[in-house]
Automatic annotation (TrEMBL):
It comes from Ornatilinea apprima. Pfam families: NB-ARC (PF00931). This is NB-ARC domain-containing protein. The lineage of its organism: Bacteria, Bacillati, Chloroflexota, Anaerolineae, Anaerolineales. Residues 176-317 form the NB-ARC domain. It comes from the Bacteria. PANTHER family: HTH-TYPE TRANSCRIPTIONAL REGULATOR RV0890C-RELATED, REGULATOR-RELATED.
């Protein structure tokens, strides 16, 4: 959010546009962050301007002991302007000028307003400028307040797994309808194979302003990745959420019920049930298939719903539970997939290097898996499309084989410092770390570290959270899985050589 975009000039341009039926100035889009539809942005901004000016103007008249009502005709309008300027309240005069210059249904020229106010046009201009300054302050405070409220509600959300989203609006719109409906399902599951974008859809949806407005809190729990210990052994993350006890403890902490987190699990569940019945919360359980006892977890969570709702992402279908609304996430259609790979290639400085007819052949091989498309976009900077297609055809069939091939090709393309840095991420916080921490953890010189970071980013191996200050970096879960199962096993002698793995 850039408050500097909300300025007297952008506000006046929007008010003039409002009078002529044109869209508002783009600078005011900072007031409607998260709203995608241009028409919806326009309506929200217009309503905000009209309501803020009108309500404040009438309130200022009330403070001065004047009638808090708008005039019904031209004669009453001119009389009310005279009345406002007869007071010594310059703020009332400023709001009066904004209303009658830009919003009043009675069309008045600058000369008419000046004559009614008994001032010269130059003085009227000063009062208009004063009004624009007051309105700017009001709208900036409103934007900050909204931003703070959103931050408070969404403080437990993880780092987004995307820089650009394609093909998710139909899912987020449906989720919004389901959760807005008082009679809607208490539990919804987003289902699909790994890398298809379940978490991305969930993360995009829960951060929508329209969704945030529905809840007092948005909670997010997920099974944590294992960590790489100093002795080279894979160990469980200390704050893993892989059991019903883990999940309930994390939920209690995020609800601000620290004392409850230390209670026995059944007592904790009862306390959570009472809290979730009293408060409207949206609870996201990400990567359900990695959680032990999930078949016991689902009914336990359902009993806690009350005024709250649950959103689940999983590779395992939950169709066996009649109280769960299942929503399968499909692969991107060919056009959306082409938009994604084009955007990824443009981001890497190679726009227009893949014709749509060539992509059609690639799509027949890899389908519309977003993660696979991003990895292929990185490979196209080093290899021709024919080379990549030949590699796919010789690789093991199936989705696992597809990802394994892509990751091996990427691994083999990395220089040694980038490989070492990639492995060091296994010891990082799965929610992300900042550059300073990663640099220290890598043990590399500054030059090697930043060069390696750029290399990992070029191959789509990094996910960034630019909303956080400072920016956080982490790996996609499937990247972590590849490092743990293929690379570490290779080094320990439990895997075949790289030539065989890469197809």
């Amino acid at each position: 959010m850039d408050l500097a975009e909300i300025s007297p000039s952008s506000i006046e341009a929007s008010l003039k546009a409002l009078r002529s039926g044109n869209p508002p100035h783009g600078g005011l889009f900072a007031l409607v962050e998260g709203i995608r539809s241009p028409e919806e942005k326009r309506l929200v901004i217009e309503d905000l301007l009209i309501n803020t000016i009108t309500d404040t103007y009438l309130q200022m008249r009330k403070v001065e002991g004047l009638k808090s009502a708008l005039p019904a005709n031209r004669q009453q309008t001119l009389a009310q302007i005279f009345e406002d300027f007869s007071t010594k309240n310059s703020d009332l005069q400023a709001w009066c000028c904004l209303y009658y210059r830009y919003l009043s249904p009675i069309d008045l020229s600058v000369e008419e307003i000046s004559q009614a106010a008994c001032v010269v046009p130059q003085h009227l201009r000063r009062r208009i400028n004063q009004g624009l300054a007051l309105l700017t302050q009001t709208l900036r405070r409103r934007a900050l307040q909204n931003h703070s409220q959103v931050a408070a509600v969404t403080q437990h959300l993880p780092t987004p797994e995307y820089t650009q989203l394609v093909g998710v609006q139909s899912y987020t719109s449906l989720l919004l309808r389901l959760f807005k409906d008082p009679e809607g399902p208490r539990m919804v599951s987003l289902e699909g194979m790994g890398g298809i974008g379940k978490t991305a859809v969930a993360r995009a949806f829960v951060s929508l302003p329209e969704n945030v407005a529905l809840w007092q809190k948005v909670l997010w729990v997920s099974a944590r990745q294992t960590l790489l210990a100093e002795d080279g052994q894979l160990t469980r993350s200390p704050d893993a959420s892989a059991t019903l006890e883990d999940i309930s403890a994390r939920l209690a902490e995020q609800m601000g019920l620290a004392a409850l987190a230390g209670k026995p699990v059944q007592e904790r569940l009862e306390g959570l049930r009472a809290a979730l019945f009293q408060n409207r919360c949206l609870v996201v359980v990400d990567n359900l298939e990695t959680i032990e006892e999930y078949q016991q977890l689902i009914p336990a969570l359902a009993r806690m719903a009350g005024s709250s709702r649950f959103l689940i992402t999983t590779r395992q279908t939950l169709r066996q539970y009649p109280f769960v609304h299942t929503l399968p996430i499909q692969e991107l259609p060919v056009q959306s997939a082409y938009e994604l790979i084009s955007a990824e290639m443009t981001r890497r400085g190679q726009p227009g290097s893949l014709a749509s007819r060539d992509f059609a052949e690639l799509y027949r091989v890899i389908g519309g898996l977003p993660l696979a498309i991003k990895l292929v976009a990185a490979q196209l900077k080093l290899h021709s499309l024919n080379e990549i297609l030949a590699g796919f055809r010789s690789a093991q069939a199936g989705t696992d084989g597809l990802y394994r091939f892509l990751y091996w090709k990427t691994w083999q393309s990395l220089r040694e410092p980038a490989k070492q840095l990639l492995l060091s991420f296994l010891a990082a916080n799965p929610e992300g770390e900042d550059l300073e921490f990663l640099s220290i953890m890598s043990g590399q010189s500054q030059q090697d570290f930043y060069t390696a970071m750029q290399e990992l980013d070029a191959f789509s191996l990094l996910e960034t959270n630019t909303d956080h200050e400072p920016t956080l970096y982490r790996l996609h879960r499937l990247t972590v899985t590849f490092l743990q199962t293929d690379i570490l096993n290779l080094w320990s002698g439990d895997s075949t050589d790289e030539r065989t793995q890469s197809g």
